[in-house]
Automatic annotation (TrEMBL):
Protein name per Swiss-Prot or TrEMBL: Uncharacterized protein
Biased composition (Low complexity): 8-23
Organism: Flavobacterium hydrocarbonoxydans
Annotated segments matching region Disordered: 1-23
Domain of life: Bacteria
Length: 58
């Protein structure tokens, strides 16, 4: 029983570390997604500007 308890005690920080790592990754992914969402209209706007420029040249 003591060995089991000590094993559990030893594993808990590892689990905490994994959870925190996962939280950090999730937050990174959220940030990346929001960045992508923010960039998409910008890209659309640039494409439309490029199309306008091309048609002006044509």
């Amino acid at each position: 029983m003591t060995s089991w308890t000590s094993n559990l005690t030893w594993r808990t920080p590892s689990l905490t570390s994994r959870t925190s790592s996962l939280t950090s990754r999730t937050s990174n992914l959220t940030s990346w997604t929001s960045n992508l969402t923010w960039r998409t209209p910008n890209l659309t706007s640039r494409t439309s500007n490029l199309t306008r420029l091309t048609s002006n040249l044509g």
